[in-house]
């Protein structure tokens, strides 16, 4: 059992990562370098560098993780010292809704560095500090551009050699139970733990977009994965436990409930009309015009006509037929980085505290991609759903009885008012910005 991570000098000499399914475009081939390594406990880790010195190979990354961590798949021991199998997450199916509910008890031990419940003072997502003794951080180097690694405290995990097997809670067929045989990854956007995603340059966000495309392609190739979901939680009020600019990618071994509902609607629409529901929604929003808040060469951002949240924006590609992020071309990836940057900045300016400075908006950015294997994927379309539960500078929307108890949303505003506020913050056509 390795205690300090395998020797990966051969990988370093080989240079660029050799992917299974990911196909970099012209820009990524010339300006982004992917360097893989393995952390001390066996988890995969990737550097995505956009610094020319690393891209050219003039500089190379530190690839050895010096922490004395046990292999994550090694057997544990119980209170009496008897060996037990690795305690992987499980999932149970709710017979009332049909939803699979992952259960990961190890997440109770994860470090929390943000908010009143903080349990750790260090930041495991930050790079090592030169000259300091190595602490329990996840990045083996003293700096980085963008990094991706498997979550140390995953909600879902694939254990080698363990095939998902359906059993039943208490032996009762009402409650199917299986291994939560998915995967959870972390994407760190920048080494500066005090920076905000809205402050990152468009070039860095372009590397983040490449990270989403890279992992979408590679994770879609894993056995048993049904849905790849890149997302970003931002802000203590959202429940973010680590204060660092980062996002996550969940790879589910099932179709999650929100996607299942959207697939049912889009499939029924296709059977009824022969059209693509998401494409027709985009065209209808463009025709109405009032709720369009931004557009550039490749993307359109709008407040949906039936918005749930007090601040909600959907972002869709102009080109039809795009099912997932890895299908975007170079121009679309650059335009997405530009639009995402502008959206974050305007989101921070949306609520006025009276000083004209806006605020650090708590938000969730959720990428809705076509499922990996489900045949209904052909009638879906890539889209980003961005929202915040803040409804004023000093108020949040609580999901109370109707929302939490019945999933019946009641909005405190109208989509037209949300769009009108965005119109006050900048021009709809942003094509020339950042060029």
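^ structure tokens above, recovered residues below v
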């Amino acid at each position: 059992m390795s205690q300090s991570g395998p020797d990966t000098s051969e990988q370093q000499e080989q240079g660029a990562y050799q992917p299974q399914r990911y196909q970099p475009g012209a820009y990524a081939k010339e300006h982004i370098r992917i360097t893989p390594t393995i952390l001390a406990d066996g988890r995969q880790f990737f550097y995505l560098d956009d610094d020319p010195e690393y891209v050219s190979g003039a500089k190379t990354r530190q690839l050895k993780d010096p922490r004395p961590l046990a292999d994550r798949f090694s057997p544990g021991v119980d209170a009496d010292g008897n060996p037990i199998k690795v305690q992987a997450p499980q999932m149970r199916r709710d017979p009332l809704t049909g939803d699979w509910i992952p259960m990961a008890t190890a997440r109770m031990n994860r470090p929390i560095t943000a908010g009143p419940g903080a349990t750790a003072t260090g930041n495991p997502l930050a790079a090592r500090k030169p000259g300091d003794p190595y602490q329990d951080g996840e990045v083996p180097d003293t700096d980085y551009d963008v990094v991706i690694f498997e979550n140390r405290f995953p909600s879902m995990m694939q254990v080698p050699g363990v095939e998902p097997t359906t059993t039943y809670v208490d032996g009762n067929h009402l409650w199917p139970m299986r291994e939560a045989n998915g995967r959870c990854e972390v994407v760190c956007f920048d080494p500066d733990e005090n920076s905000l995603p809205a402050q990152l340059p468009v070039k860095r966000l372009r590397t983040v977009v490449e990270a989403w495309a890279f992992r979408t392609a590679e994770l879609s190739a894993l056995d048993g994965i049904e849905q790849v979901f890149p997302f970003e939680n931002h802000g203590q009020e959202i429940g973010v436990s680590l204060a660092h600019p980062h996002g996550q990618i969940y790879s589910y071994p099932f179709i999650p409930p929100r996607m299942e509902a959207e697939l049912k609607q889009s499939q029924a629409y296709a059977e009824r009309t022969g059209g693509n529901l998401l494409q027709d929604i985009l065209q209808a929003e463009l025709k109405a015009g009032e709720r369009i808040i931004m557009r550039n060469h490749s993307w359109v951002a709008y407040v949906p006509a039936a918005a749930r949240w007090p601040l909600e924006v959907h972002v869709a590609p102009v080109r039809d037929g795009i099912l997932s992020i890895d299908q975007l071309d170079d121009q679309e990836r650059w335009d997405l980085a530009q639009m995402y940057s502008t959206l974050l900045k305007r989101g921070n300016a949306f609520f006025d505290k009276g000083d004209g400075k806006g605020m650090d908006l708590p938000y969730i950015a959720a990428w809705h991609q076509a499922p990996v294997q489900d045949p209904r994927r052909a009638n879906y379309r890539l889209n980003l759903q961005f929202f915040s539960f803040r409804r004023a500078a000093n108020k949040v929307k609580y999901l109370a009885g109707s929302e939490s108890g019945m999933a019946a949303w009641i909005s405190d505003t109208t989509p037209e008012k949300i769009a009108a506020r965005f119109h006050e913050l900048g021009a709809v056509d942003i094509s020339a910005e950042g060029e």
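Confidence is low (pLDDT under 50) at residues 1-15.
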